[in-house]
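Thread title: Can someone regenerate the structure for this chain?

I was given the following input by a collaborator and told the matching C-alpha cells would be attached. They weren't. Posting the sequence so someone can regenerate them.
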Amino acid sequence: MSEILKELGEYVELKLGSHVRGVDVRYGELTVTIDRDQIAKVLRFLRDDGRCRFEVLIDICGVDYPERAERFDVVYHLLSPRLNQRIRIKLSTDDATPVASAVEIFAAANWFEREAYDMYGILFSGHPDLRRLLTDYGFQGFPLRKDFPLTGYVEVRYDDAKKRVVYEPVKLTQEFRNFDFESPWEGMTGNVLPGDEKATRS
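Best answer:
Regenerated them for you:
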C-alpha cells in the first residue's frame, strides 16, 4: 500500500510542480504540503484528474502551533471512492491571512470552514457565510487555540430576575484545588485518606 501511495505522491508532485512543498508517506497515509495560495487549484486537480479522482471531501480541520509565525495548519482530507484511496493536503497560515474557500469545489467545505473559523479563528476568503457554527452568539475567543484559557473568558447563565441569559466574567471560587479523593473542590480535612480507617495499625 505504501508503494501505491508513494507513486501517487510522486504523480501529484510531478503534475503540480512548484506548488508542492513536500510529499510524505507515513503510517499508511499520504500527506502533501502545498503553498497556501494554491489550494483551489490543487483541490480541483485532485478532484478532476483521472488518476486521482478525489471526489469526496471528508474533513477540513485546523492545528495550532502558537510558537510559529504562521501558527495554523489547515488540513484537508479527501477520499477517492472509485480508487479506494485517501490523501491529506496541508497548508499553513496565520490568524490574519485568509485561505481561499473550497466551497465552490466541494459543497461540504461550507460547514467545515465555518467550524475551523469558529474554533481557531482561521479565515476563509470567498466563503458565502463565514460565521460561528458551534459556539454561542457573542462568544469571545477561539476555544481550540492553545492559548485559550480552559475556563473561557465569560460564563453564561439565565438570570431569573432579568428573565434573560446574561454573560459574566469567569470567577473561580478558589485559585488552587486540593484533592481529597471525594470532592475536588474541598481540601483534605486530615491526614487520613478515605479507606484508611479500615486498615489495621501495626
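The chain has three helices and nine strands.
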